């Protein structure tokens, strides 16, 4: 026990400590932040609010922008951007929000219908689309476009690579 709290207890300041592990593995304490339903008389509205907060926490644009503001983020300076996946455009916008002046060029590959013309006005990137979940010749073309782009960059070039779900269908090579 830590802090005199019994196992699986709620601490008064809004955290929960849980003793986690399997019989064959070492056990450890895990700390979880509790979400309060105070202020939500309707439990359904509380669940909707929790759902909205969860979605907002993992939204690609905001997540990348937050990550680039971290002290451990890549140092400022020029780099090439590769973003692949269904969230590629959103993630690339996060780069544009924080480091647009550092982007030398790049490729963004996303699902058909997810492209955003505003991105190419904000960043010097080419946006390619391919189908998901079943790859086709556009997936092969996107894979070749990435290879060609990498071949055309200097050996000492810096890259920021952002990959989200769907990448394995959107970019293919035979």
What's this entry about, in short?
This protein is an alpha/beta fold and 174 residues long. Helices cover 37% and strands 23% of the residues.
How many individual helices? 6
- How would you classify the helix and strand content by structural class? alpha/beta
Largest sheet: 4 strands, parallel
| Helix share bin | 25-40%
* Overall pLDDT metric: 84
Terminal Cα span: 55 Å
Model description:
The chain is α/β, with parallel strands linked by helices. Helix content is 37%, strand content 23%. The chain has 6 helices and 7 strands; from the N terminus they run βββααβαβαβαβα. The protein has helices spanning 43-58, 60-69, 88-99, 117-122, 137-152, 167-170, and strands at 9-10, 15-20, 28-33, 79-84, 103-111, 125-130, 159-163. It has a 4-stranded parallel sheet with strand order 6-5-4-7, sandwiched between helices. Strands 1-2-3 form a 3-stranded antiparallel sheet, with no helix packed on it. α2 (60-69) packs parallel to α3. It is globular. The model is unreliable at 1-14 (pLDDT under 50).
Which secondary structure elements does this structure contain, and how are they paired or packed?
Layout: E1 9-10, E2 15-20, E3 28-33, H1 43-58, H2 60-69, E4 79-84, H3 88-99, E5 103-111, H4 117-122, E6 125-130, H5 137-152, E7 159-163, H6 167-170
Parallel strand pairs: 4-5, 4-7, 5-6
Antiparallel strand pairs: 1-2, 2-3
List the keywords:
disordered N terminus; globular; 23% strand; 7 strands; three-stranded antiparallel sheet; 174 residues; alpha/beta
